[in-house]
Amino acid sequence: MKAALAGPEGELLHQARRATGRDRGPEAVVAEILDFAAELRALGAERYGESAAAAGVAVPGIVDDAEGIAVYAANLGWRDVPLRALLTERLGGIPVALGHDVRTGGLAEGRIGAGHGADRFLFVPLGTGIAGAIGVDGRVEAGAHGFAGEIGHIVVRPGGLACPCGQRGCLERFASASAVSLAWAEACGDPAADAADCAKAVESGDVRAVAVWQAAVDALADGLVTALTLLDPRVLIIGGGLAEAGETLFTPLRDAVRRRVTFQKLPEIVPAALGDTAGCLGAGLLAWDLLHAGSPTPTHPEVTT
């Protein structure tokens, strides 16, 4: 996990990382988060002469932002963890914001990253899975039940590969970094090959890699056109591991989306700008929002995790 002290302009004043401790069980992960946050707040007081005035935390899985509860996270073994209340108590009663990791990263990309200045954006990170963050006027839409933006579970290949969500043919089964890694490992006969290797092989002209890559791009374009038909974003921000391929991804992806658009307005399709700092920056923005909504911008730092 990553944590930081963030300033009023979104700058990261200090960053740190440590293991989640999930091998010791879900309670150990919560304890690590609480300890990490407390240590970071103490460091801020020592270094800047005053303690952080608020904290923001971003977690995976299903999140109830309003109630501050980490509802469910399969990888961490969590169910209904009152994380905001626990952090508020551990940090001496300061306000704490809890957000979903992808939506929080999307908030940062929208406000201070690749979507800066756009009134409507869609942030789509392509990693182990595919998620999305819907940006509207400087905030990110969570939906009525906290599920907004789950673009990875748009069905793009009906009857296709089974997905852990219970459907078949979901987008993330064809266009995530892990899906490309699996397809390329099978095509090239090297079980250790991954999506980055596939991108390099595409650049060298390997016809097998080109076929795997184009299949992923086509599936991604199908999913994205469905999303932009529904949401009409001004900017479409693509991040995650697969986006690190640069124009090897973006050139064919822009072409594929353009070919599929009919009446829709084609958004600008851009790479994410903040990399793996987006989550910390977004958590910092959530914390600042708690502090200075309708008030002058404070000068003290806040903890983000």
What does this entry look like structurally?
By secondary structure, this protein is of the alpha/beta class. The chain has helices at 26-48, 83-90, 101-112, 172-175, 177-188, 195-203, 207-231, 247-260, 278-292, and strands spanning 2-6, 12-17, 55-59, 62-64, 69-73, 78-81, 96-100, 120-125, 133-136, 139-141, 235-239, 268-271, 302-304. A hairpin with a 5-residue loop joins strand 1 (2-6) and strand 2 (12-17). The radius of gyration is 20 Å and the shape is globular. The N and C termini lie close together (7 Å).
Cα Rg = 20 Å
What is the CA–CA distance across the termini?
A: 7 Å
Oligomer: single chain
Order of helices and strands: EEHEEEEHEHEEEHHHHEHEHE
Beta percentage is 15-25%
Q: Could you say which overall geometry the principal axes of the C-alpha atoms support? A: globular
Structure keywords:
5-stranded mixed sheet, 9 helices, 19% strand, 305 residues, alpha/beta, single chain
Topology diagram in text:
Blueprint: E1 2-6, E2 12-17, H1 26-48, E3 55-59, E4 62-64, E5 69-73, E6 78-81, H2 83-90, E7 96-100, H3 101-112, E8 120-125, E9 133-136, E10 139-141, H4 172-175, H5 177-188, H6 195-203, H7 207-231, E11 235-239, H8 247-260, E12 268-271, H9 278-292, E13 302-304
Parallel strand pairs: 3-7, 3-13, 8-11, 11-12
Antiparallel strand pairs: 1-2, 1-13, 4-5, 5-6, 8-9, 9-10
Summarize the structure.
The protein is an alpha/beta fold and 305 residues long.
